[in-house]
């Protein structure tokens, strides 16, 4: 497709060993771990499922960045196995958030839109910053691609949380919060399928594929 960049397997391997990418992963790990602790407390205080989903996503991403750092520079097969594990974790996250949203639909309350808005802006700033740092590495192997997809989806999710905060404030109802939580779950499930598909291909010996800016691989 127009605008898609293609790379060869040796280029992807060289990028994976890039010290600049390692530095970006450390920054992302620290930022996501800090936001996990901040946001999980705010989500309970606000009674917001979308904030809870976002906090769990920050925690999962911090763990994924740690895993990426561990396998960085290792053989493609090892990195593909790590990406496969991350893909499965993305899927579990999606299923878990859907479960929380279903529970809240019957037992929840109207969340605090003020807290949602303030924390949502902070989370968006963190994720946009991390995604900007990772942008140049988005066309690497499945391990690098999974890192990029995490940050891209997080930024989209933060925009959705901010939209939900506005709608909760206008409607004084919980449904915008639940809709956004379901959207974030669907993003996690979609990324899970994409990363697992590419990782399995690399485990079969296929060269690393690259993704265009919409997340489709070629």
TrEMBL record:
<feature type="domain" description="Cation efflux protein transmembrane">
    <location>
        <begin position="25"/>
        <end position="202"/>
    </location>
</feature>
<keyword id="KW-0812">Transmembrane</keyword>
<dbReference type="GO" id="GO:0016020">
    <property type="term" value="C:membrane"/>
</dbReference>
<dbReference type="InterPro" id="IPR027469">
    <property type="entry name" value="Cation_efflux_TMD_sf"/>
</dbReference>
<feature type="transmembrane region" description="Helical">
    <location>
        <begin position="178"/>
        <end position="196"/>
    </location>
</feature>
<dbReference type="InterPro" id="IPR058533">
    <property type="entry name" value="Cation_efflux_TM"/>
</dbReference>
<keyword id="KW-1133">Transmembrane helix</keyword>
<feature type="transmembrane region" description="Helical">
    <location>
        <begin position="58"/>
        <end position="76"/>
    </location>
</feature>
<dbReference type="GO" id="GO:0008324">
    <property type="term" value="F:monoatomic cation transmembrane transporter activity"/>
</dbReference>
<feature type="transmembrane region" description="Helical">
    <location>
        <begin position="112"/>
        <end position="135"/>
    </location>
</feature>
<protein>
    <submittedName>
        <fullName>Cation diffusion facilitator family transporter</fullName>
    </submittedName>
</protein>
<feature type="transmembrane region" description="Helical">
    <location>
        <begin position="24"/>
        <end position="46"/>
    </location>
</feature>
<feature type="transmembrane region" description="Helical">
    <location>
        <begin position="83"/>
        <end position="106"/>
    </location>
</feature>
<feature type="transmembrane region" description="Helical">
    <location>
        <begin position="155"/>
        <end position="172"/>
    </location>
</feature>
<dbReference type="Pfam" id="PF01545">
    <property type="entry name" value="Cation_efflux"/>
</dbReference>
<keyword id="KW-0472">Membrane</keyword>
């Amino acid at each position: 497709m127009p605008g898609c960049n293609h790379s060869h397997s040796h280029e992807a391997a060289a990028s994976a060993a890039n010290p600049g990418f390692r530095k970006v992963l450390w920054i992302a790990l620290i930022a996501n771990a800090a936001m996990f602790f901040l946001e999980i407390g705010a989500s309970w205080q606000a009674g917001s499922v979308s904030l809870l989903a976002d906090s769990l996503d920050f925690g999962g991403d911090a763990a994924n960045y740690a895993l990426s750092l561990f396998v960085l520079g290792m053989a493609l097969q090892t990195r593909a196995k790590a990406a496969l594990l991350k893909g499965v974790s993305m899927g579990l996250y999606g299923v878990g958030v859907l479960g929380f949203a279903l529970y809240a639909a019957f037992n929840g309350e109207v969340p605090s839109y003020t807290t949602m808005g303030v924390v949502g802006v902070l989370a968006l700033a963190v994720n946009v910053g991390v995604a900007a740092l990772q942008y140049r590495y988005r066309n690497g192997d499945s391990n690098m691609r999974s890192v990029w997809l995490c940050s891209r989806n997080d930024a989209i999710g933060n925009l959705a949380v901010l939209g939900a905060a506005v709608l909760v404030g206008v409607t004084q109802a919980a449904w915008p919060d639940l809709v956004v939580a379901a959207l974030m779950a669907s993003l996690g499930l979609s990324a899970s399928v994409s990363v697992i598909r590419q990782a399995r291909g690399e485990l079969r010996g296929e060269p690393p594929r690259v993704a265009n800016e919409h997340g489709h691989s070629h």
